[in-house]
Design goal:
The chain has 11 helices and 6 strands. By secondary structure, it is α/β, with parallel strands linked by helices. It has 2 domains: about 5-125, 3-Layer(aba) Sandwich (Rossmann fold); about 130-224, Winged helix-like DNA-binding domain superfamily/Winged helix DNA-binding domain (Arc Repressor Mutant, subunit A). α7 (about 165-175) packs across α10. The chain is globular, with a radius of gyration of 18 Å. The relative contact order is 0.10.
């Protein structure tokens, strides 16, 4: 079995030790390096070529946001998963723009973190439900009345989706990945991906983050 190679970046040695211990039961993961600060995280990424960098936001020399930008610029195939205690709206917005594949809070469970790593390693996005909500509010604030008007328009019109597409869009709003949706609905991940593509075409949405935003904003309608 090919293991997912991981670089841990956190300026607290106890946190890194705790994460290594946390990952011990997961034989699919391989910790190949540890970084004490943002600069070292970038340097070790270029040296070790991990599939996933688990990165804190607040670090010396180079913060997590700038480190993420440099990692994605210099090693585009590397996925960055932010693991931090900060649920500040501005952090979430900046991390989202930096190119990170996921954002998980440190109060998440071990299995949530493991799922996040698996998800981003597959090339998918992972944002914990709390972070998704914050991300939506931040986006709405920055887009202003134009987005609000668009949202009202969506709420006033029936969604041109099949029952299955509505189910999948609802689960996207719940923060589930393609594989998790597939498992929930007893269908293949490829089928979920096809439905997702059809949903985006029907709704004239061309960005994954905007699809998540739409799903969250219309969860009540999708559940009815």
């Amino acid at each position: 079995m090919n293991k997912i190679t991981i670089l841990l970046a956190d300026d607290h040695p106890l946190v890194r030790s705790g994460l290594i211990k946390l990952f011990e039961p997961y034989k699919e993961f391989s910790i190949i390096g540890e970084a004490n600060d943002g600069e070292e995280a970038v340097a070790l990424t270029l040296k070790l070529h991990p599939e996933v960098v688990v990165l804190d936001v607040s670090m010396p020399k180079l913060n997590g946001i700038e480190a993420t930008k440099q990692i994605k610029e210099k090693s585009p195939s590397t996925k960055v998963l932010i693991l931090t205690m900060y649920d500040n709206e501005e952090y979430v917005y900046q991390i989202f723009r930096s190119g990170a594949s996921g954002y998980v809070l440190k109060n998440s469970t071990r299995e949530q973190l493991a799922n996040a790593i698996r998800t981003v390693a597959r090339g998918e996005k992972f944002f914990s439900p709390e972070v998704s909500e914050i991300m939506i509010h931040a986006y709405l604030k920055r887009t202003g009345q134009q987005t609000t008007s668009s949202t009202h328009s969506n709420e006033n019109n029936s969604l041109p989706l099949t029952k299955r597409e509505r189910e999948i869009l609802f689960l996207i709003g719940e923060g589930l990945s393609n594989s998790q949706i597939a498992e929930r609905l007893f269908i293949s991940s490829r089928t979920v991906d096809t439905h997702r593509t059809n949903i985006m075409q029907k709704l004239d949405i061309h960005d994954a983050s905007k699809l998540v935003r739409f799903a969250i904003l219309n969860k009540d309608k999708l559940a009815s």
